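Deviations from the work plan: none for this task. Representative record:
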Amino acid sequence: MATADNSPTRDFVAGDRQGRARRVMLGLVALLLVTSTLSLGIGASGVSLWSVLGQIARAEAVAPREALILFDIRAPRLALGLLVGAALAVSGAVMQGLFRNPLADPGLVGVGAGAGLGAITAIVLGGLLPLALQDVVGFYLVPLAAFLGGWLTTLFLYRISTSRGRTSVAVMLLGGIALGALAGAVSGVLIYMADDAQLRDLTFWGLGSLAGATWDKVLVAGPLIALVLVVTPFLAQSLNALALGEGPAAHLGIPVQRMKTISILTVAGATGAAVAVSGGIGFVGIVVPHLLRILTGPDHRYLLPNAALLGAALLVGADMIARSVIAPAELPIGIVTATLGGPFFLWILLRNRSLLDL
Amino acid sequence: MLSATDIHADLAGTPILRGVSLTARPGQITMIVGPNGSGKTTLLRALTQDLPYRGRVLLDGADIAALPGWELATRRAVLPQASRIAFPFTVLEIVRLGLIAAATPAPGHRASEALARVGLAGFEGRFYQDLSGGEQQRAQLARVLAQVWDPVGPDGARWLFLDEPVASLDIGHQLEVMEIMADYARAGGGVVAVMHDLNLTAIHADQVLLMQDGRCLAAGPPAAVFTDAILSAAYGCTVRVNATPPAPATFVLPHMARRAG
């Protein structure tokens, strides 16, 4: 006969995926360490990470060329890849939780385009600001504008698709597409107005790439993304409760309105910062959370940190491929994420159709 | 005690509640019945602040509009009518969401205990969206029970607000859920439920509020409210209480059903 089980925790309970989520988290940390090390060691120049580390270990002076490549080219690029990858994946996961829909992705529903419009506006019209203000905001102008653009788009999108506590998926997707198109059109006008120097900036920015990563860019995007990564774990239980709906979440004592505001700011902050420094790399925000939900379930307490880890590892890995396939030239990283992610994503979808109830 | 006074509420500009008052006591089951569109669910939603209302709702003497959400969540739990969930949560994970609100950490087996209580023992590892409608409803009930597990807390009674808790259940599971409500009330908790089934209401309710067109048509114990005249007026058809059909007819009454075991 069944006996009363009074032993606290530890015991295996069916349907409890926390243990698996923790093991996956450890695995992802390992994966991130491996990809990061590889990324530092691989590059068109052929400079070896190990030889530089060896020189440091033997207290020898590092050759200037090798030091330059390692510390001023590869290291900032790695840092930017980690930041952008984590930001894209986490903002995807938070937005999907907020809209209670696995299709909500900042890139898909126009938030990326809104952030892009913000960035383009700053590049083209930034010169019109009073000089004093330009001095104050300095090179934070573009990321700030991208953040503002992303925030306004997310806010607007949530307003139009939610009425009386219900978020309409159809309105969200169609509204997002409309907003994206509108932002694209205004961006087009601005690009048309741009002069030659601005055009060069725009082209460089719009490539959707980690090329041209500098410590300056890391410093621009880093604080905002770090802030987002610190804040999101506090949203986890609220997002879990929100999966039941806004009313039921409120009855569980969740301050729904406040957590929605914070979620929207979070998505806008992470998307804005990522778009400002990388031009918007698609696909990470939707694939990473999906994959993790299938592996370990939708519990945001694990989904959010795991998404940050996997997103970072994925982007660093993709960047490594992007710059080694046709070295010394580079593929835009978006091509790599799409080529790798697309078929993989389809495979997951077909295998787990029943789990992806929309 | 729950006491609502002169509640008004509108939906999209149309008045749905036109001044309803209700009193529910802990230790009793209070049921809200009435024809479709009479405002039953809207009344429950107003009582639980799911929609804006005018009037006053006091829970144990305190105006609920002034209580913080987390405090209310330790004192009352609300079962919505139908719940669709966006992501692939397991049944265990859904029930554990009810524990978010708990004032003190619940023991690890509480979720399984709640599932066993609603007849879903062994369902922990199933995916919520793979359950039938009735099973989903009972899984949600388990979540709600887990939230306010003890019918009486250190600071007073706990409350269950249930919107048609037996709507998509078969007769056996209807009895099971009615028993849960009765046990909760017997142990000192308060239960307020919107009901469709007049027979189950007649058996289990201590107090009935019969609504019609956004107003309270009658209130009191079932025997006083469920009369031929009142029910006929409320539902717009001729109703005869406590009358059996002529001999060859077949009828099944929950009054005569007992749960096995």
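The interface with chain A takes residues 45, 48-51, 69-74, 76-78, 80, 83, 85-94, 97-98, 100-101, 107-109, 112, 122, 124-127, 129-130, 147 of chain B (CB under 8 Å).
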